[in-house]
Amino acid sequence: MARTDRFVFVDQLRGLIIALMGLDHASNYFNAVWKRVDYNEFLFDTAGQFIIRFLSYLCAPGFLMLAGAMVWLSFEKRLQKGGRAWDAGRGLALRGFFLIFVQLTWVNASWGGFQRLRLDHFGIIACIGASLVLLTLIVRLGWWQRLLIALTIIVVHPLLLRIDYDPGTTTLSMRVMQLFIDSGSWNLYPVLPWFALAIFGSVAGEMWFRFWRDPQARLRNTFYAGLAFLALFFVVRIPEGYGNIFPFDRVGTVSFWFVQKYPPSLAHNFLFPAATCFLACLFMVAGRLRWLFHPLEVYGRTPFFFYVIHIPLLAIITRRLELFPWKEGEVTTALLAWLGLLVVMYPLCRGYGWVKARSTNPLIRMM
User: Fold this and answer.
1) Which tens digits make up the pLDDT trace of 263-314?
2) By C-alpha distance, which of 14, 52, 61 is closest to 31?
3) Can the peptide bond before residue 263 be classed as cis, meaning omega within 30 degrees of 0?
4) Beta bridge partners of 329
5) DSSP letter at 34?
6) How remote is the C-alpha of 186 from its chain's centroid?
7) What is the 8-class DSSP label of residue 104?
8) Fewer CB within 10 A of the terminal residue: the chain, N end or C end?
């Protein structure tokens, strides 16, 4: 595979993930189910509602893993060009802090159509930013050392959830717990368990772009990695013990695949890395059909731009301009809104990608 084509599967996978995130958010604004179902629940009255919600569970794990892979690649490229490790790490850390800033200002306000500034929420973009900052501290370690750190964090995390605190307060202990360990009103995405998935991604990046240069080896070994994660999921899930939240009827039933996302359970953090690996394999195999996945590739080259634009688009047309009823439809309405969103975002992402490829402006480059 030519060097210029080697990362196409990453762009396509990233594009699929951001498209699925758009589906979840379109459902959030157009789907009446969220008036009667809690965001953490699987108690939907139709299979369509369940599928829309469950598909979105891939988004955060996929984003963290791919972000970790690209951090390793960016760091390595800067070193190969003669840059110092300190300068390479500083540049990546600045991008992480930039993501945190955008979350606290633009993203938080955009959910309500910019009706008010909300500095009191630390969301998924900020979590990714914090993970990038932390990853720069360990990215030079050997891949096996980083893998061990990630596994340790994931295995210990359920123990940390037992730390007693009052989630209904605004104390320092609440902020620390929900920043790093637990999910709550201040933060649904605690940094520690998601950072572990970013570390997994950094290991995958080193494998993909350093050791598994042959396309067949990359495909084969990525598939084996997915099987390893899936095996760990079964080992954790079947006993219904440590690290499990939701019970299940029996192995293989729909309830068997229910895993907690807020905060991510131990089973969750093995199941969705497996899914990410298998989807990466799918796009590696489908490389000859690049034309078929062209829209995903466009979205995947500008995922952050897609994210920060699509939320205010949905919010403004429903909550500010009231062009469409807010949370009044069902599955069909959510799907039509999603397709409309993808159509609108395609030329915007393509245009921004063209500008980004030719610009030297640091702000545009970070987007």
Assistant:
1) 999 999 999 999 999 999 999 998 778 888 999 999 999 999 999 999 999 9
2) 52
3) yes
4) 31
5) G
6) 19
7) I
8) N
Q: Provide the b/e sequence for 6-16 (b: ≥16 CB within 10 Å).
A: ebbbbbbbbbb
Query: Which residues lie below 8 Å from residue 97, measured CB to CB, with a gap of 6+?
Result: 129, 133
Phi, psi of 360 (to 5 degrees): -110, 5
C-alpha closest to that of 255 among 264, 245, 265, 263: 245
Q: What is the pLDDT of residue 303?
A: 95
Q: What is the pTM of this model?
A: 0.94
Q: Within its chain, how far is the Cα of 183 from the centroid? A: 16
57: containing domain: 3-366
Residue with tokens 């840059």: 83
Span 152-166, mean pLDDT? 96
Total of domains in the chain: 1
- Distance between CA 99 and CA 304 in Å, rounded? 9
Structure-token pair, residue 152: 């340790």
Q: What span, in angstroms and rounded, lies between the C-alpha atoms of 256 and 250?
A: 7
3-state helix, strand, coil in the chain (%, to 5): 70, 0, 25
